[in-house]
Design a protein that fits this description.
4 copies of one chain form a homotetramer. By secondary structure, chain A is of the alpha+beta class. Chain A has one domain (6-208): L-fuculose-1-phosphate Aldolase, CATH 3.40.225.10. The first copy, chain A, has 5 helices and 9 strands. A 9-stranded mixed sheet of chain A has the order 4-3-2-1-5-9-8-7-6, with helices on both faces. The model of chain A has no long low-confidence stretch (mean pLDDT 96). Chains in contact: A-B, A-D, B-C, C-D. The B-C interface holds B 27-30, 98, 100-101, 103-105, 107-108, 142, 144, 170-174, 200, 203-204, 206-207 and C 118-121, 124, 129-132, 187, 190-191, 193-194, 197-198, 201-202, 204-208.
Chain lengths: 209, 209, 209, 209
């Protein structure tokens, strides 16, 4: 991974935000994005339309969440982004989105994991090579105490049998997709959202049997 | 709130209309918008595509609904806009839209309120800080006598336990979103429409259990 | 109605086609449009993408369907357009579209009419002033013999109790919307498609009760 | 069929990809396209967004799949494209897409064929002239061994009662549409996707009876 400087990171997130906004996955100023840059984490400031970001919508924070510089205030969810970066040095980008499918499926599924198999699209997720494997995405209950939620995520992945990859779902809230670079993270986001959209339809169809 | 002059209000509503039209929430010349300006209420004239408004599509009316100037005739629903402005001096913008989700859910729900909890997106509505709270939007039966419907809405909110905020639904008709300024009103509209879209899917999924 | 000349009619249909194509209602070169011009009927030629029409995609025909001039061959459904024009001198535009909702609902409904009440959007259809009225759109079984289908439509509306207005559905095929001018026809199309989309969702929701 | 040279083939596939990408049918770098050119097969390289292709995203291969020139590596599914070209000299273009509807329906249907009748849109598929006919598209189980899957497809169509036309579905994977030229292949793709979208809704509606 070619580590980015701050301005490169901002440019990447503006472009990703435009693409994500057109998909309808960051409604009502929801969602937040970040990149691990060469000397800080670049995070979106709270309150902006993430589909129409500009240079003034970003802050730099350190790994403790302290603001190094930038405008406005960081999203409350910054703690969760930082936990994901702390859990793996390979994680260089986090995209948090609110799609209808991710929001509704994470409520519909009562257990703690979204699991699918049988989809070719699983191969869009790094490391998957067959539709016959089972792809699992952990679901965490939503919590307005973001530090506590970040700790819950840390604790969960401290269990070595829980593999930190692709993304996590927060129930009734949305998806955090992540990856080794912005392009891979976008691919994880798009692949997972496709699978969520398929499952939404598949569950309704199966009820029609 | 920095009160707008008439021309600023018109510019805001043209921009909002373009965004709303692209969402598909004002089909077939449906919907109507207004802003409380410095010396009048700016309202959309009837019969125009609200997604493609121009300077000639607006009228100025006073609080009694009398036309002060402008082209065409005000929407029949102007009485309802004025009732919402009368009920709270904090209301500076009203956006009335017709989405499939708002139309269908307001018919599906037999009671007088749309209620949700468990959604992070509830926090897009001013005053909400947790997904654990319950968000309620009053539903009124549709009525072609708009003065009578406006009075029903006034009477309902004269009950102090009924909090006037974010929006109201008219059954089989659509949403009236409102707020302290155009940006907040847009946010309420977008947040509520996301929740309607989620509930539409959630109800169908639950039937599949 | 200000009767158009041929070139005005073509310009109107190109613009309407662009708008309709963006809605996804004329897939796979489906659909066809026409206008009653001052001295002929302007109809779309077969085989073109109706969302990307140009001056070369039209023919002029007389009331018997004879080609007066133009390129290509008229749509097989021209006979049905002409029947609608013959049935009412007030009809000046016909827009035939293929939406998923119109196609599926016209199959789901086993009877010969699509009926709704309770929707404010019914008022987008000329002559309707209340959501409490019942709006009815006749459904005809599809027939590859377009002359026979045109005659079936003529016979149906020769019954004075069957009011020729807004549109007709052909089962598993799509909608023919019509009106006194292109703008009104577009409004009928958009209003009816909104109602079809609502009913599609409403029926699925009701099953969830 | 006017056989294309390599550069014409590339231009056609770039334009088709842009159109297909806008439909949402090639998410997460999924899908792949090819054309039988005058002296080779032009295929998309793996790993690119098929909605934003450029001249550098293509390879030329021979009928055995050997790379003649070009950048990157050919899609793993090239073997399946080549099998379709081998099965019929009339096939000049193959478009492989991943829509939600094709993916989900091909899983929902337990048998080996997607069959519909009663849709006018069946006539968008070459050779169909009536909604009363039955349109059938073979469904093959997905297989990560593409040579084996290609052989399965070859074996299936070596049975003369199995007509090779329009497209095939791979279960949980997507559609391969094909035709005698790019325009016809696009029409088959669009017509089939419309039918998949209709069946998705029809099945859910029927459950509501």
């Amino acid at each position: 991974m070619n580590v980015m400087n701050t301005q490169q990171a901002i440019s990447e997130l503006i472009a990703l935000g435009k693409w994500i906004g057109a998909k309808g996955w960051v409604p009502a100023t929801g969602g937040n994005f970040s990149i691990r840059a060469d000397d800080c984490f670049v995070v979106t400031a709270s309150g902006f339309d993430k589909g129409a970001l500009n240079n003034k919508c970003f802050l730099n924070v350190n790994s403790a969440g302290d603001i190094l510089n930038g405008n406005g205030k960081p999203s409350a969810e910054t703690a969760l982004h930082l936990a994901l970066y702390e859990l793996s040095l390979d994680t260089h980008c986090v995209l948090h989105t609110h799609s209808v499918a991710a929001t509704v499926l994470s409520r519909y599924i009562k257990g703690d994991v979204f699991s699918v198999s049988g989809y070719e699209m699983q191969k869009s997720l790094t490391g998957y090579t067959s539709h016959q494997d089972t792809l699992s995405i952990a679901i965490f209950d939503n919590d307005q105490d973001m530090n506590r939620l970040a700790q819950t995520v840390r604790d969960y992945f401290s269990n070595q049998s829980h593999k930190l990859q692709h993304g996590i779902l927060i129930r009734g809230h949305g998806l955090y997709a992540f990856g080794q670079n912005p392009a891979q993270t976008k691919q994880h986001l798009e692949g997972l959202e496709f699978l969520f959209a398929c499952e939404l339809e598949r569950i309704k169809l199966e009820a029609a049997l």
